[in-house]
Amino acid sequence: MPKQIQTDVKIQSANTNLQNKFGGAGALQKIFTPERIQMGQEKIEEFKETYFDEEFTQLEILNDAAKGKVKNVEELRNGVKSLKGQTESLGFSFIMRVTDSLYKYLDEKTELNKNDILVVQKHAEAILAGIDKRERGEGGALEKELLKTIEMLVKKFSKK
Amino acid sequence: MAIQTIKNISVLILDNEAKIANLVKDVLIALSFPERLIFTAVDGYEGLEILRKRPIDIVVTDWELHAQSEHANKARTAVIRTRWGDFPPVNGASFVDCLRTSPKSPNKFIPVIMLTGPTQSNHIMYARDCGVNEILMKPINAEDLAKRIIAIADQPRDFIISPNFRGPDRRRKTAPLPNGVSERRKLDMKIIKNID
In this complex, is the C-beta atom of A47 within 8 Å of any C-beta atom belonging to chain B? Predict the structure, then answer.
């Protein structure tokens, strides 16, 4: 017979405090009307529309990286991470994929050799191309080629 | 008929990206949450400070939540000793873990919605096992956010405290057991007390 192991468990029964604060069962369905949800979604769409009009703090670092110059790996990694987070939240797939790839490649790197610089350069070029084109989706044939190049380089030079 | 609005529900949004946190705030305002009761934090440390100072009803946190506020240590991978306990400043799930398990947690029962990137099942399992109530996949979508809030409010779950897990009951299914089969977890489980 399998050994029975006793586990001490405390349970707090589900309570309806939050539901009551909202106004009781079913109240939220009345509060979250289709019009309000639509308004909320419009906020997201407006933000996406103007996203590329805002100043990108990461541009200088990316421009340098596209020229093969990386002064500070940590700074580059933080800049890429920030861009990745934003584009992921907004669904800008192409830029998100490239920034994700670069962020993972830079993970735990403090110095970059020649091959790393090449990988970073190609990523930066792709990101800048995406920003320049205001690419909000997965991109077209060009973006697919850029991704292919990046994936090939990462596979070739990644040590993991 | 007057449209109902939300009066006294407070929300805390945690995201490393202030732009995104403010976007989520705007969506919540559009859904009629009161603007004065929506708070934002750039990391778990700042979030915990806010939770200590004021009552919060719902937390919305990003998965990516690296330490970066003035409250946090600059070291990227060190475990931070805070008054809330040891806190690995790695991600939103570890923030939730700290919230659920630290003896100095300001509110271990608070409902949490986590935003995470597309299809990483290991993130989802980890987040669930840290005690997250609902997962919301990116990209951000107003309807899905509304549905998660409705789920938290209208489908409340028992809160489990055991040596290996603290958080909302991870079992959602209410299907009955087959005839003659005992509920195995209750055979092994000694319920100390209901802590209503």
Answer: yes
Would you call B171 an interface residue with chain A, using a CB distance cutoff of 8 Å? no
Per-residue pLDDT tens digits of chain B, which is 196 residues long? 456 778 899 999 999 999 999 999 999 999 999 999 999 999 888 898 899 999 999 999 998 887 776 665 544 444 544 444 555 556 788 889 888 988 888 899 999 999 988 756 677 888 888 899 999 999 999 999 999 999 999 998 889 888 878 899 887 766 666 676 666 555 555 555 444 4
Query: Beta partners for B166?
Result: B161
* Residue the block writes with tokens 């489980």: B189
Nearest CA in chain B to A19: B153
- How far A134 CA lies from chain B's nearest CA (Å)? 17
Hey, are the CB atoms on A9 and B141 less than 8 Å from each other?
no
Q: What pTM did the predictor assign?
A: 0.86
Burial (CB count within 10 angstroms: exposed 0-12, middle 13-18, buried 19+), residue B119: exposed
Q: Do A89 and B115 touch (CB under 8 A)?
A: yes
Sign of the CA dihedral A59, A61, A65, A69?
Answer: positive
- ipTM entry: 0.88
